[in-house]
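Appendix B. Chain record.
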Amino acid sequence: MILFGKVAILGTGLLGGSLALALKGSKMCGRIGMWSRSEATRRACAEKFRGCKVCAEISEAVKDADLIVLSSTVLSIPEVAKEAAKSAKQGAIATDVGSTKELIAKKCSEIFSKKGVAFVPSHPMAGLEKSGVQFAKKDLFLNAACFVCPSENKSATKAVAQMWENLGMRVFFKTPKEHDKIAAKISHAPQCLSSALALLADGDLDTFKNFAGNGFKDTTRIAKSDPAMWRDILLSNPKNISKNLDLIAKKLSGLSAAIKASDKKYIEKFLSRARETRLNLEK
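Structure tokens predicted for this chain:
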């Protein structure tokens, strides 16, 4: 079923590229316009996304689009929105795939409302530690959770939610504030922790290369993610992320003190609670 005559995807990294592939496979839209700042990325898109129009200018990609998807880095999304709004048709819908929502929702709603465009913030919780359009895959969104922040425009909210659902996602409606609290706990703080763990190997690479097993590799996998992308995410959700990092630090500090004091009871309780919690996630 066609939901949108034309979809404009502004930003063609992993998520933007995967969305283009998924939309092509779903037949939910008639045409797809894609934009990237990078000429090299545009060339790669022209090769990978046959049938999609790859544009050097935002205005060209957005022209006549019924849905505009902002999929650039978090802090650049309002800037891209401002440029997109200049060419957006009245009555169009805009959404985004940013990992934080409060800052984006506030700025982009203001930008698009002046042009008669409904902005519905969204965040598909799908991704890889790899970045770039070369890693785009059409099934990236299958069975993953997706947050949608309801707009005053109920029909626009419904259309955005339906798109993600049709791509196989489990949609949850949350306010931008609620989203950022949740994302900090389940995604942003764990990313920081993974990066901190990876730094244990800094200056001692031979030891880790020769002896570290899958436990270290598994817990540090996401530390391979794009630093620039994550820098923007961390800077746009500071209070929530810091709160969770402080909580983690407190737990580690307590464990460290117990180990120094040879407090068997505390250590066993800590590890048992952690094990029980992790097992409960699988039920």
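Further analysis of this model is presented in Appendix C.
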